[in-house]
Amino acid sequence: MIRVMLVDDQELLRAGFRMVLGAQPDIEVVAEAGDGVTALELLKTTEVDVVLMDVRMPTMDGVEATRHIQGPKVLILTTFDLDEYAFAAVKAGAAGFLLKDVPPADLVSAIRVVHAGDSVVSPATLRRMLDRFAAQLPADAPVTPAVGELTPREREVLLMVARGLSNLEIAARLEVAEATVKTHLGRVLAKLGLRDRAQVVVFAYEAGLVVPTHRPKV
């Protein structure tokens, strides 16, 4: 059973999410909060697997609350399709970023994916986020020394993840089993000190390993 906490200052929205998730045989809403501070307090006494976190809330917003959460996966939900929110959420450790008008089936799927250890970011938002962020980096951004600890295959997997490929797509391109890709990705995360593939994507752009389409390679 996937234990979910709903964190949103709008009670009607929480009720809607509760109704959608309550209809799923493998998902249970175990706690609710109207702001980040309350959510953090509840997490001290409640076992939670996935937190559905609003961005804009009183007292403490969702991005700040996410920075303090260790253990549960955080899936950011917001009505604001703005790049800075997506980037801030991923940097804070969120495993996913979706708009609140996401179809119910996609929301349920996202919770399952995040719970399984993967990450979910709206594709359109991710592309814009990374292009905007990468455009602000110096063209000669230094490659962090930690990258040197990666094997050639691990680096290859890192770059494919950074370009948005799924584990299944990477496995097909490398002609290996999907489990092998997961193993390589796990080693990449451990060596670079990253939480999930969403942070791998940001890391690759930040380190200058991936060049956005609008910036010509030197």
How would you characterize the overall build of this protein?
The protein is an alpha/beta fold and 218 residues long. It folds into 2 domains: 2-131, Rossmann fold, CATH 3.40.50; 137-206, Orthogonal Bundle (Arc Repressor Mutant, subunit A), CATH 1.10.10.10. The protein contains 10 helices and 6 strands, in the order βαβαβαβαβαβααααα. Helix 5 links the parallel strand 5 and strand 6. The protein is globular and about 50 Å long. The mean pLDDT is 83.
Any descriptors?
alpha/beta; Rossmann fold; 2 domains
**What CATH architecture of the largest domain do you see?**
3-Layer(aba) Sandwich
How many runs of DSSP E, i.e. beta strands? 6
Looking at this structure, what is the CATH superfamily of the largest domain? Response regulator
> What is the helical fraction, as a range of percent?
40-55%
Number of helical runs?
10
**CATH class category name of the largest domain:** Alpha Beta
Q: What structural category characterises the helix and strand content?
A: alpha/beta
